[in-house]
Amino acid sequence: MTGISSNNFEQLEKIPLYIPGKPIQEVKREFGLDHIVKLASNENPWGPTSAVKERIFKAINGSADEGVGFYPVSDGFYLRQAIAEYRKVKLNQVVLGNGSAEIIEMAAKACFITGGSAIVPRHSFAIGGIATQTAGGRVIETQATATKVDVDAILKAIQPDTRMVYIANANNPTGVQIERDGIARLVKEIRSDILLVVDQAYAEYSSPGEFPDAADFLSERENLLVLHTFSKIYALAALRIGYGLGNERIITLLERVRSPFNTNHIAQVAAEVAIKDLEFIIFCREKNQQARDTFFAEAKKHRCTATGNAGNFVLLETAIPAPDFFRDLLKKSVIVRPMHGYELPYHMRVSLGRPEEMEAFWEAAAPMLDGGR
Ligand SMILES: Cc1ncc(COP(=O)(O)O)c(C=O)c1O
User: Fold this and answer.
1) Cα-to-centroid distance, 364 and ligand 1 (Å)
2) 148-197 residue pLDDT tens
3) Which residue, judged by its Cα, is nearest atom 5 of ligand 1?
4) Distance, CA 201 to ligand 1 centroid (Å)?
5) What is the pLDDT of residues 78-88, one digit of tens each?
6) According to a count of CB atoms within 10 Å of the terminal CB, is the N or C end of the chain lower?
7) Rounded Cα–Cα distance for residues 62 and 35 (Å)
């Protein structure tokens, strides 16, 4: 055998690469800057709390029971127990992932073991489509706009070989939310053998009473998987930890495709502390709403359109092509996310940071938006 060329590799090369937000260190290096404002990856600028940090230090310092020399509890029993209690489900209805993105990959592995298709609305969070294809499935993209996901289009697009429907609610990058009646229709009308994956990475940014939580439908549909992450409001993005809720059969199936020790001990114990701190969640939710309101008002002043009512980010449409706007902002020490890769050529996704970070954004962006770059 010579070389590594095969049809499979050619197939793999056609799958889009996930392009993450630029890291602060990279921008400092590239542009010789020393202070950067990062509004590119929908992280939480307010955390984690000191209680979470103390628990992390304790885990690193180690004891007879824990420390970085030991493997973690492979299935994250204690964190799953805390999640089950918090979400009022059984322990066996919870699975952990190395970020919720890994659970999307686990779902795709489980669904496409013998091929098939996934329904993914246009402008959706990219991992749904990428995970489908790397697991051997094909993507059927349905009609959606920057301000609306079309539930009818999802239902109409289902094929005999469809194995998974993936929606992010709220969606990243558009901040669009499907309301409860839309979720209820998907739950009831999607064929029962299809796994409906509802990714709720930003759910905690909405008040519990207002959020159309797909987990409410777990008793009505066996093939339902609801995803959450500790990367967003819980401010643990670097630790890579998320969770999925489903019925026991689905969770048991996902356990078969989960890598052993997929979540690390530090992440597990930090998340266990974080999930109990409701006061911090409420604080971040309020700060986020204030940042969104201020952003919308500023966007209006500069005659551009800001949309997205859910999550910790907004979508800003300007008259400047997204890659140009992105480069020019980088030179001014501000990292945002250009959205041309999501078929939104004039849109930027801007994460909602602390007031001083948002001020820095407008200070850099205003001259570009108002004329002279
Ligand atoms: C909708 C959505 N799902 C999942 C993720 C991935 O989160 P995690 O860090 O848990 O892998 C993101 C991250 O931006 C997201 O926007």
Assistant:
1) 27
2) 999 999 999 999 999 999 999 999 999 999 999 999 999 999 999 999 99
3) 101
4) 6
5) 999 999 999 99
6) N
7) 34
